[in-house]
Amino acid sequence: MILGVEPELLTWIVGRATGLASYAALCIAVLSGIALRTSMLDFLANNRALRAMHDFMSFIWLPLGATHVVALVLDKTARIDVIDLFVPFLTDYGQLAIGLGTISLDLVVLIGVTSWLRDRLNVNLWRWLHRSAYAMFAVTFLHAYLSGTDFDSPLISAISWSAAAGIALLAVSRIALGRLPD
Predict the structure, then answer these.
(1) DSSP assignment of 93-108, as one string?
(2) Is the N or C terminus of the chain more exposed, i.e. has fewer CB atoms within 10 Å?
(3) What is the pLDDT of residue 34?
(4) Distance between CA atoms of residues 7 and 119, nearest Å
(5) Is residue 182 one of the residues assigned to a domain?
(6) pLDDT of res. 179
(7) In the prediction, which pLDDT does 33 show?
(8) Separation of alpha carbons 24 and 31, rounded Å
(9) CB atoms within 10 A of CB 20
């Protein structure tokens, strides 16, 4: 027993908790990132605190996401193999939900790595790669929605749907009203 909890249950709890925390960090990173460049919120464009929060949350998901993935691989109940981290839709159960998690992981890594390499990439290429954050959020949202019972919690459901609505609203305003120049 570890902390009064069986090891099998502990890996499940850690996997679930870090999944939720990683999802929250990604929601904040996407919301703050889009808020920085949406012309509707031009007064936030030079807000150092918002920029710092975006940058910080973009890195917070790394240890949370890594712990989520490791815990699920170690969790005998989850039955996630290492190959499932790279190739989506191979599991014998929950193929859609877990496959979306794999795609989400791939997109998060792509966005994170290209953000670190931003100064070495063509600006237009980087911008298009970074815009895949919209797809990453949608895939992550669906993964979270389909893969567990956490959305049954009114608090988690309200926060998740509110974040999705906020991102959708800012995305539509950015399309309709434009993007702030760099």
Answers:
(1) SSHHHHHHHHHHHHHH
(2) C
(3) 84
(4) 44
(5) no
(6) 65
(7) 85
(8) 11
(9) 19
Q: Which of 139, 65, 67 has its CA nearest to residue 109?
A: 65
Task: Say how many domains are in the chain.
Answer: 1
52 within a domain of the structure (yes/no)? yes
Question: Is 163 a member of any domain?
Answer: yes
Q: Residue 87 sits in which domain range?
A: 7-177
Q: With contact defined as beta carbons under 8 Å apart, do 138 and 92 qualify?
A: no
Q: What percent of the chain has pLDDT over 70?
A: 91
Residue 1 falls inside a structural domain: no
Tokens of 34: 């889009």
**Residue 39 pLDDT:** 65
Nearest to 22 by CA among 54, 67, 56: 67
Kindly state the tokens that stand for 116. Answer: 């670190």
pLDDT for 11 beyond 80: yes
